[in-house]
Design a protein that fits this description.
Elements lengths: L1 H6 L19 H4 L12 H10 L5 H7 L4 H7 L2 H14 L7 H5 L4 H22 L11 H10 L2 H17 L6 H16 L2
Helix pairs in contact: 4-5, 6-8, 8-9, 8-10, 8-11, 10-11
Length: 193
């Protein structure tokens, strides 16, 4: 019925389909649509806009958000900045994250927020293992380099897949504390050599 609606929309109707992966859409759907690519604004423009929003540490927030200014504005709030610092401090520990103590008291919201920080952190570790530079946690490069030295690439990639799956399941009625403990333990296995 979607194809039929796209072929013959009702009068005075505009249908907007949004996809962050348009190549994964069926060819029959793409052929019936006009493609409009929206790109993130230039870094300088995004930083200027963030300054008008009274963003805390806008450069770090924009890097963490992958250049997306609206997400960066959210991440630049003092509460989110403090949370990220707390998670990064835990992930940076030379002896590994303290799984049980850090995950105690986790609810679904904290799990979702931790997943975002962990995913971007692991992404930066993978980039460092492949002779790249960190993209997201540009204010924590020494800690990233220290963790990358002992990390095993194949385990980091497996952890990345596990984090993706966890993000899909975060809305389900799972035990957030146990999920956080599992992910932190997997992180320790991947980064402690």
């Amino acid at each position: 019925s979607l194809l039929k609606t796209l072929e013959e929309p009702p009068p005075a109707t505009v249908i907007v389909l949004v996809s962050d992966r348009p190549a994964r859409l069926l060819a029959t759907i793409r052929s019936r649509c006009e493609s409009v690519v929206l790109r993130a604004p230039a870094r300088a423009k995004a930083l200027a806009w963030l300054a008008t929003q009274d963003a805390v540490e806008p450069e770090a927030a924009l890097a963490l958000a992958g250049g997306a200014p609206l997400l960066a504005a959210t991440l630049a709030s003092p509460e989110e900045r403090d949370w990220r610092r707390k998670v990064v401090a835990e992930l940076s520990r030379p002896d590994g994250a303290h799984v049980l103590s850090f995950a105690s008291g986790f609810d679904r919201q904290l799990l979702e927020r931790m997943l975002f920080v962990m995913q971007t952190w692991v992404h930066d570790l993978v980039r460092l293992k492949n002779a790249g530079e960190p993209r997201h946690h540009v204010d924590a490069v020494p800690a990233l380099r220290a963790k990358a030295k002992r990390a095993r690439l194949e385990r980091l990639l497996a952890l990345d897949r596990e984090l993706l799956e966890a993000r899909r399941l975060v809305a389900h009625p799972l035990n957030a504390r146990l999920a956080a403990e599992n992910l932190l333990a997997a992180y320790n296995r991947a980064t402690l050599g």
